Amino acid sequence: MNSARSVLITGGNRGIGLATARAFVAAGDNVTITYRSGQAPDGFHAVRADVTSSEEVDAAFATAEERFGPVEILVANAGLTRDGLILRMSDEDFNDVMDANLVGAFRCARRAAKGMLRLKRGRLIFVGSVVGLLGSAGQTNYSATKAGLIGLARSLSRELGSRSITANVVAPGFVETDMTSELDADRKSQILTSVPLARFATASEIAEVIRFIASDAAGYITGAVIPVDGGLGMGH
Ligand code: NDP
């Protein structure tokens, strides 16, 4: 097992982020989660931050660093959807999703890179989505952000690789979280016909892959898009 590392997870109060926080804590790491609204879950070092604010991102990193030292692992997980068909999608719906999912991840990565460059090691892990490569009707905004994360991660892996900093995208398919609980039963069964494993993932199945990407065993993986999608995106 690795010795305790300072890990920062955005959107760690629920869903995939919370499952990931639990996985890192179970592995003995020191975890700081950010949460935007509501209450932080009990038992975690938590700081309120909206990833659409560079100041709040900066303050969250400063709090994590004060408590646990330089952030060695970033899990840029915070994300949201504002679905709608193209003719009905407003500039605001497009921009809001862009600002949180893609620019938010960029803000976090830029802040994390500062400390990682000094440490000469680090793991940047972006939570993408199968739809970043597959596309999704009604999700032009969301899919574009998830495709954008791939360019972001691959550029960072070239920019920072010589300092032993890796940058990867973990790309889940459909996962049982609040995000997918909005889907009605018909839509869910329609989706399942395209998933070879014929079920949604649990949040912890995504968390375990993220934890692996942060492990010593994954030290030679960078610029990769790692699907955890039950086969939905095969070939993409
Ligand atoms: P949830 O909706 O359960 O949680 C989303 C998290 O992101 C919440 O903590 C939310 O905070 C936070 N968040 C959203 N916007 C912001 C913001 N502007 N600043 C800070 N935090 C923000 O989603 P999931 O756990 O399902 O999703 C996590 C990630 O996984 C997302 O990036 C999503 O796109 C991706 N993903 C999810 C899939 C799924 O099927 N569930 C499939 C593929 C990818 P708050 O509680 O305040 O709203």
Describe the protein in words:
By secondary structure, this protein is α/β, with parallel strands linked by helices. The protein has a single domain, classed as NAD(P)-binding Rossmann-like Domain (Rossmann fold, 3-Layer(aba) Sandwich). It is 44% helix and 15% strand. The chain contains 8 helices and 7 strands. The protein has helices at 15-26, 54-68, 91-119, 131-134, 140-160, 178-181, 185-192, 203-213; strands at residues 6-9, 30-35, 45-48, 73-76, 122-127, 165-172, 225-228. A 7-stranded parallel β-sheet has the order 3-2-1-4-5-6-7, sandwiched between helices. Helix 3 runs parallel beside helix 5 (140-160). The longest helix has 29 residues, at 91-119. The protein starts with 5 loop residues before the first strand and ends in an 8-residue tail after the last strand. Bound molecules: NADPH dihydro-nicotinamide-adenine-dinucleotide phosphate. NADPH dihydro-nicotinamide-adenine-dinucleotide phosphate is lined by residues 10-11, 13-17, 35-38, 50-52, 77-80, 100, 104, 127, 129, 172, 174-175, 177-180.
- The CATH homologous superfamily is named NAD(P)-binding Rossmann-like Domain
- Indicate the low-confidence ranges by residue numbers: none
The CATH topology turns out to be Rossmann fold
- The gyration radius over C-alpha positions equals 17 Å
Mean pLDDT: 97
